[in-house]
């Protein structure tokens, strides 16, 4: 089981590894290519938009042909795209390569959740999700430090070479693993994607996915703008920025551990709204520019990340608990909504706001309020299947 969890963690970590490791290079590219931040940040937005679109493709294909074939194809695309990113000499080529990289990375994280559903049941699956949350948290914690060290010691293209080798390791693991899906879908390929119509009719799944998908908005906004704030505005080096980002990412590791302890005493129906209210409350300090830097950004953002990571694994498990068939497609749609809202928030925060930190606070308050209100309404009006 340890080998399975390690492989699933690596697959689920593809998005943060493909993003956090590269963030420190963004101000460098802005300066060397003499481009606005919004243009260079399209390397982030393009990655996530394509990533989201291909999530909807890999999920149904994994239900029809098994988990391994689309995983191997997607990871192969990811490896090729990573090498292309490494040789990019202008922003247009880098954006195109990152778009291709997103198309490959989508296979990993979407199918990883489906494999969890195949292999584990109920409370065990929730515990596995929590373990994955802790392990995957190490990716955004360590990646920016590694990326900053690579930038200072070598150059930014070596970040993508390292990502390519990461993809090769994942491909070997998938090649060696047994197929987890025991019963393949018998639908014709032309009808496979009609599963999304069935999913949309599942009100519990659909409404939960849309509501909880908003919770990542402040986190994605921070990812898109943090390097510019810490490096260009506050004047820290790429390596020091990596430590600030790692401090924030430590919340991803601590929160699931706190949740697992708290879940022994409180039911899920109390823990999830606590998470959403925590995001709402933690966003308020962003509105006050009297708080000195870097505390105004670093401390409230840590708590937003903590409460987000506190409820997300259990929320993902609850969402998938509402479906009995089309699990791969359901998993893909769940991750699609989450990352598409994230990509939109990355674009939005890059529009040249006078006080981007305040904008993050407003976004956090809005997403926390909508998630809390949506959860209370769904839980009251619809009969949810609890793990």
Task: Walk me through the structure.
This protein is an all-alpha fold and 387 residues long. It has a single domain, classed as Up-down Bundle (Growth Hormone, Chain: A), CATH 1.20.1250.20. It is built from 18 helices and no strands. It has helices at 2-12, 14-20, 25-33, 37-40, 42-65, 68-86, 91-119, 122-153, 157-176, 189-192, 195-201, 203-212, 217-233, 238-262, 268-282, 295-321, 327-349, 356-381. α5 runs antiparallel to α6 (68-86), α5 runs parallel beside α7 and α13 (217-233) runs parallel beside α17 (327-349). The model has no long low-confidence stretch (mean pLDDT 84).
* CATH classification, class level: Mainly Alpha
Shape label: globular
Outline the low-pLDDT stretches.
none
Number of helices: 18
Q: How confident is the prediction overall: mean pLDDT?
A: 84
Q: What number of domains?
A: 1
SSE layout:
Blueprint (H helix, E strand, L loop, with lengths): L1 H11 L1 H7 L4 H9 L3 H4 L1 H24 L2 H19 L4 H29 L2 H32 L3 H20 L12 H4 L2 H7 L1 H10 L4 H17 L4 H25 L5 H15 L12 H27 L5 H23 L6 H26 L6
Helix pairs in contact: 1-7, 1-8, 2-8, 5-6, 5-7, 5-17, 6-7, 6-9, 7-17, 8-14, 8-16, 12-16, 12-17, 12-18, 13-14, 13-17, 13-18, 14-16, 15-16, 15-18
């Amino acid at each position: 089981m340890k080998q399975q969890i390690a492989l699933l963690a690596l697959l689920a970590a593809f998005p943060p590894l493909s993003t956090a490791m590269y963030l420190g290079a963004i101000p460098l590219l802005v300066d060397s290519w003499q481009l606005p931040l919004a243009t260079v940040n399209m390397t982030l937005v393009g990655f996530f938009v394509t990533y989201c679109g291909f999530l909807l493709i890999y999920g149904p294909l994994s239900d029809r042909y098994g988990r391994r074939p689309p995983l191997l194809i997607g990871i192969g695309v990811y490896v090729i795209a990573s090498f292309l990113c490494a040789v990019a000499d202008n922003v247009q080529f880098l954006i195109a390569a990152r778009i291709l990289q997103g198309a490959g990375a989508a296979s990993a994280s979407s199918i990883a959740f489906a494999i969890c559903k195949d292999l584990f049941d109920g409370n065990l699956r929730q515990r596995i999700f929590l373990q994955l949350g802790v392990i995957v948290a190490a990716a955004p914690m360590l990646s920016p430090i590694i990326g900053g060290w690579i930038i200072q010691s070598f150059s930014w293209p070596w970040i993508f070479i390292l990502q390519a080798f990461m993809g090769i390791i994942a491909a070997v693991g998938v090649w060696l693993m047994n197929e987890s899906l025991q019963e393949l879908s018998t639908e014709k390929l032309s009808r496979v994607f009609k599963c999304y119509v069935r999913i949309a009719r599942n009100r519990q799944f659909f409404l939960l996915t849309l509501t909880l998908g908003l919770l990542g908005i402040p986190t994605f906004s921070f990812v898109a703008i943090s390097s510019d704030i810490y490096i260009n505005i506050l004047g820290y080096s790429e390596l020091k920025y990596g430590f600030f980002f790692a401090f924030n990412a430590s919340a991803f590791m601590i929160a699931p551990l706190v949740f697992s302890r708290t879940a022994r005493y409180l039911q899920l129906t109390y823990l999830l709204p606590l998470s959403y209210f925590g995001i709402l409350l933690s966003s308020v300090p962003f509105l006050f520019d009297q708080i000195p830097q870097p505390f105004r950004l670093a401390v409230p953002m840590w708590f937003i990340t903590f409460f987000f990571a506190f409820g997300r694994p259990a929320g993902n498990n609850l969402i998938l608990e509402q479906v009995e068939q089309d699990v791969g497609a359901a998993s893909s749609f769940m991750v699609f909504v989450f990352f598409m809202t994230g990509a939109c928030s990355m674009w939005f925060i890059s529009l040249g706001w006078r006080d981007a930190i305040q904008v993050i606070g407003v976004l956090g308050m809005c997403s926390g309020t909508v998630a809390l209100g949506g959860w209370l309404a769904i839980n009251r009006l619809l009969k949810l299947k609890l793990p």
